[in-house]
Amino acid sequence: METIKYVLDETRMPTAWYNIQADLPTPLPTTLHPGTGQPIGPQDLAPLFPMALIMQEVSQERMIDIPEEVQTIYRQWRPTPLFRARRLEQALDTPAKIYYKYEGVSPAGSHKPNTAIPQAYYNKQEGVKRLATETGAGQWGSSLAMACALFAIQCDVYMVRVSYDQKPYRRALIETYGARVVASPSEETHAGRAILAESPDSRGSLGIAISEAVEIAAQDVDTRYALGSVLNHVLLHQTIIGQETMTQLEMAGDYPDIIVGCTGGGSNFAGIAFPFIGAKLRGEQDVRVLAVEPAACPSLTRGKYAYDFGDTAHLTPLVKMHTLGNTFVPPGFHSGGLRYHGMAPLVSHLLELEQIEAASIQQLDAFGAGVEFARCEGILPAPEANHAVAGAINEALRCKEEGVSRTILFNLCGHGHFDMQAYTDYFAGTLQNYEYPAEEIAMALAGLPSVE
Amino acid sequence: METIKYVLDETRMPTAWYNIQADLPTPLPTTLHPGTGQPIGPQDLAPLFPMALIMQEVSQERMIDIPEEVQTIYRQWRPTPLFRARRLEQALDTPAKIYYKYEGVSPAGSHKPNTAIPQAYYNKQEGVKRLATETGAGQWGSSLAMACALFAIQCDVYMVRVSYDQKPYRRALIETYGARVVASPSEETHAGRAILAESPDSRGSLGIAISEAVEIAAQDVDTRYALGSVLNHVLLHQTIIGQETMTQLEMAGDYPDIIVGCTGGGSNFAGIAFPFIGAKLRGEQDVRVLAVEPAACPSLTRGKYAYDFGDTAHLTPLVKMHTLGNTFVPPGFHSGGLRYHGMAPLVSHLLELEQIEAASIQQLDAFGAGVEFARCEGILPAPEANHAVAGAINEALRCKEEGVSRTILFNLCGHGHFDMQAYTDYFAGTLQNYEYPAEEIAMALAGLPSVE
Fold first, then answer.
1. Predicted TM-score of the model (pTM)
2. ipTM score above 0.90
């Protein structure tokens, strides 16, 4: 019998997250106050986040315990399966071994609950009554809504207007979990009203929706803000993906030569890669790590490593990251989860340290890879995950050309059952590639704050 | 630590299906030829099905081996998890223990691949080049399309016109797997053309789509027909659900007092219940078994136990079953998988033998239960599965009233990620209940063939 699945008994589910900050050769650049440009401390973030999450944001401890109650909920779908893509290998006729970790088995269909659950938990612990957040495509919004339902916290989701109108099904899922969905920009906030005054027909953006959610959280003592990617503590919570994978690959008697993940804000990529990068940083085992981003939102490959705001209204702290500029609005391509102007500071830092590589992929290539994958493996990937699939297939084909076998691991961060319009458009031939003119990117970057 | 999930190691996945025909106190009524009304033999079915499936249809063997190649594909998502719904129990404040088996982890999101995979396998074994089938909501069509992709068989799916127009996303999934989707009634068949000549705007029905697929299969030597429910061999393939559950409940040290499943054609219900009913028939262990159907398509509770055709054009054999009449077209309620005029002969037979009970549930109650379930358990059920959820909740509330603890098991046969329009309509208040006037049912039943 050929093994295609590596299942980890739930008693072997990791009980602590891995914090890569403990292994960095040089620390992350300091986070700065949005108003003063001066370094900020934990207390400055208290209006937005519960103290437990703030301490995780800055912690230098290597392992951080997962609370028992969070573990219990994780165990509903974790450990997630690791698959050997034998049928895809055969179709590609490659000597490479391809493994993929599948996060689509979570109730929300993606990796996002890995951080939504602990975020809701810590907020509940500190007496928070309501969480405000933003969502683009809706993967994050639905995951946080689910987590808030489990912990009986009210949840307000500011949903980018264009998604609110075009993706009513994600909105319906969020509402089924009992959360309130508000089209952003909205009349509920100063930030939203300011945008609407200028452009009554604004289609919104993640940057605007973040401004609204942050504003709501900052002004209400019982409300905090929750973010689905980018921040250190969010990436931390996702590392359970890579830790499980390490154990599963041990079961398979294997270790990756190459790890591939797709990047938008960086959280699923960090989840699969950081535990392996940690082993590399500690000199235990080498590995190539490849971040694949959409050509239509190329923060890692064409952005600038600079201090920038996370939002449009400049309410968030300034962090050093690869950014296309906080005014950057990507075109309407079909990977809503990857449409963000910035990249997680930790991922950006690792690229600067040359611990990871980055590449961009065109939309049509990503969907082509996703369809090939679905026909071989049965699982239909989310458009975001298609970027990782494409990256892995490219590496496997290189192995074939070079006549060498390598072990390729990628993260299949979610299923595409909510994204069928994208596949419909792909088959209808209405999807197109997008190449940014250099001057457009330069223009967006010109608006960066002048902080060093 | 409270256990909420019972995971079966894949080495303990059943390697044979359970055939309840071996344990029936009286055999199933004979199947009759559609033209002559005389009993038919295996050879009469050969134009439609491969011989291996025909032999399974009539087999009296208790256990039928699952081919190694089918097992390997099953293992991608099987054994599926059994959950203890502790958070739901708490919300209901019931002394009952509620377990649910979750089939939504399959790549297609439902239990349908359990039979799609072996059907594609046996057809491939016998050299079949193309499978023709029908689909309503699309769960079956997408599952067969996936199976055909894995075995490199061409797949033509006749999709009920109203679903084809209103559920483009299921259609997109089927096409992503490489199958051809045809709106039914179509111009491709005599059956379709006859309907269109009479009603050019026909919205179609499962009965019509079956006629088209059967006609295509019957006239092409390289093409066979595949059905997603109703038939004995289809129910057989689903019994892996109940067999796994038996072992998982053993791990939990428990045995169900009540088993609840939703019924359309009867396959997911049979899958969870038959292994337990078998134990009851053999006098090993008693259990109550409850089939829950939609009030808008009440074949078990308001249909007649009589010989009827499976399709509108009377191309299929005559089987004895609970039926609303082959001309019956249910209203457009939101459980496409339960919109069929007949019930599986095996399920019907067991109802006649008083081995199972049947109840119907209104659409709004089903959705109410599904939303409550989602907010407690995180998983969003398919509208079909909501009927089982509602049945289980009703039983749990009865336990509370009576102050007794019982062990309730139900089958959560699929997730609702493709069914968000239904939830949207539910929250918008546009869904309604449906109670059939007795005379309407009597009228549909008046058209039954006069065969005893």
1. 0.96
2. yes
